[in-house]
Amino acid sequence: MNSQPDSCCGSLSEAVASPMPPAEIDCLRAAEQSRLRLLDRVGWLVPSVILAALPKCPICIAAYLSLFTGVGIHISTANSLRVFLIGICALSLIHFAFRIGRIWYVRNRTFTTDG
Fold first, then answer.
1. Angle at Cα 95 formed by Cα 43 and Cα 83, nearest 5°?
2. How confident is the model at residue 13 (pLDDT cuts 50, 70, 90)?
3. Maximum alpha-carbon separation in the chain
4. 28 contacts 8 by C-beta, under 8 angstroms
5. 87 against 105, higher pLDDT
6. Domain residue ranges of the chain, discontinuous segments joined by +
């Protein structure tokens, strides 16, 4: 049986550990990069959907939590949970925005030399 993968199904760490042709290593790198791009897009999507779907009143949060999980909580706890979720989602969106801004800045800055 052949120990090398016939397609781009393996991981990049497997490619580094075993001797593979450069074309297959490039294929694996492209697959890893596409996975990372997908995770970046999902990283934006998850907090955005949570913020859009999050109810504004704590009573609704307590009702949804009770309906879907069977766990009953007080209104004050639901309000704290709501504030916590809003904060976590906002912080993650700010993090992603700074990452994109940093990537954009590095790609678009100009190098000048005095001479």
1. 85
2. low
3. 72
4. yes
5. 87
6. 12-107
Reported as a single tens digit per residue, the pLDDT across 64-101 is 999 999 999 999 999 999 999 999 999 988 988 888 88
State if pTM tops 0.70.
Answer: no
What are the residue ranges of helices labelled H in 18-74? Answer: 22-53, 58-69
Amino acid at 109: R
Q: Is 20 exposed, middle or buried (0-12, 13-18, 19+ CB in 10 A)?
A: middle
Amino acid at 30: A
Closest CA to 82 of 63, 64, 56: 56
Tokens describing residue 114:
């005095």
Do the beta carbons of residue 64 and residue 82 sit within 8 Å? no
